[in-house]
Task: inverse folding
């Protein structure tokens, strides 16, 4: 490639030629589109779960296949008590990961690739005879019997499933997540696109009569009401990343924001468990995907029969304009749309009017999850629907805490 660096034209030519030599895409599996062959394994609107107890372990490939999570590092410790007794317990247990499997000489995800680029296994580096499938709306686990003998789903945590298939041994492996915190499950016999479909588990609807959740009160934050109108901005200020008007809108948003206290009541006649962290009830915004799409966090806490608990739970972001300013801007938007329709000689389409703000706080739809035995991940959703108050509509002397209606 001939280049002459003494003029700008040659420099541009050199840069263009270098860019032509670079690959246009890096087909890494974290960026892959779902291939057509993976259809039938859930959608964004309806996730699915697979019970791997319905899969057949391929013991001819691995006499000790991984079909359940395993704990490693466990060892006993003991101490002598003042009364002469010896107390013994098991400590330092942790879940086995794919890295632990690799160190133990078992197959791990790295073994499926000829090399790893930038720490990410890429499809073009798959070893010969291997296929890879990414199933973003499928999780897996297995049905286990609870203390009452009822089969319940124990999910192996993760929010999508990666699958590798080895054609020479007709076996496949499953990874519940890509963050390295889980082991590689398998090998299992057969083609995964066939075997996994046959093992899809239907969600068993569970209800707990007598368990209710409701919004109790709303707590506002900032005390001083901001000015009704935004500050006047000079021309240079409008070019800044953070203008006085943006600061004014942030003040209004904070002044209108609130936190909702939720009461969870257990009149079911049995012990319940609920998720809480740092004194706050864990809730999830109601979302697409169904029961399996939620990723629950927090620590399980016991709630005895006949008891209730009240905890802060939900942050309600406030509208960022005063009602008077919002009304003024809405009038401007409607006037602009009317003039535009008149100049175009067409009737005004109400759907074409862009309203830059809202006059009421949006309704909230959230879910609280409870469980009767936390080891099983088939939590029961308790729905709450409420509309937080708009602070500006309350009396001027209203307290910072108002009851929910």
Result:
């Amino acid at each position: 490639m001939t280049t002459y660096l003494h003029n700008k034209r040659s420099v541009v030519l050199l840069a263009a030629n270098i860019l032509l030599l670079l690959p246009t895409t890096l087909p890494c599996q974290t960026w892959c589109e779902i291939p057509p062959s993976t259809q039938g394994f859930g959608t964004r609107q309806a996730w699915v779960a697979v019970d791997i107890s319905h899969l057949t372990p391929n013991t001819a490939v691995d006499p000790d296949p991984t079909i359940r999570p395993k704990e490693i590092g466990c060892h006993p410790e003991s101490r002598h008590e003042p009364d002469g007794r010896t107390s013994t317990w098991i400590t330092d247990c942790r879940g086995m990961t794919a890295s632990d499997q690799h160190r133990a000489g078992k197959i791990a995800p790295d073994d499926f690739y000829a090399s790893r680029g930038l720490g990410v296994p890429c499809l073009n580096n798959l070893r010969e005879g291997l296929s890879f499938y990414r199933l973003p709306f499928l999780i897996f686990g297995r049905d286990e019997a609870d203390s009452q003998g009822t089969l319940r789903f124990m999910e192996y945590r993760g929010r999508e499933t990666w699958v590798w298939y080895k054609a020479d041994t007709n076996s496949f492996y499953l990874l519940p997540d890509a963050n390295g915190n889980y082991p590689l499950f398998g090998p299992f016999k057969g083609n995964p696109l066939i075997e996994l479909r046959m093992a899809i588990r239907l969600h068993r609807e569970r209800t707990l009569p007598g368990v209710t959740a409701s919004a109790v009160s709303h707590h506002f934050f900032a005390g001083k009401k901001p000015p009704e109108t935004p500050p006047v901005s000079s021309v240079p200020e409008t070019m800044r990343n953070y203008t006085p008007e943006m600061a004014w809108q942030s003040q209004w948003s904070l002044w209108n924001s609130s936190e909702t206290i939720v009461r969870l009541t257990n009149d079911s006649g049995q012990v319940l468990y609920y998720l809480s962290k740092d004194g706050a009830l864990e809730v999830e915004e109601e979302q697409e995907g169904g029961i399996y799409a939620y990723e629950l966090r927090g620590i399980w806490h016991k709630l005895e029969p006949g008891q209730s608990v009240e905890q802060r739970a939900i942050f309600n972001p406030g509208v960022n304009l005063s009602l008077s300013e919002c009304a003024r801007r809405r009038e401007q938007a409607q006037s602009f749309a009317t003039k535009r329709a008149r100049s175009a000689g067409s009737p005004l389409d109400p759907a074409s009017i862009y309203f830059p703000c809202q006059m009421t706080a949006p309704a909230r739809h959230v879910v609280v999850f409870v469980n009767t035995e936390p080891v099983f991940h088939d939590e029961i959703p308790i729905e709450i629907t409420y509309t937080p108050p708009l602070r500006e509509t309350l009396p001027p002397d209203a307290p910072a805490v108002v009851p929910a209606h």
Summary: The chain has five helices and 22 strands.
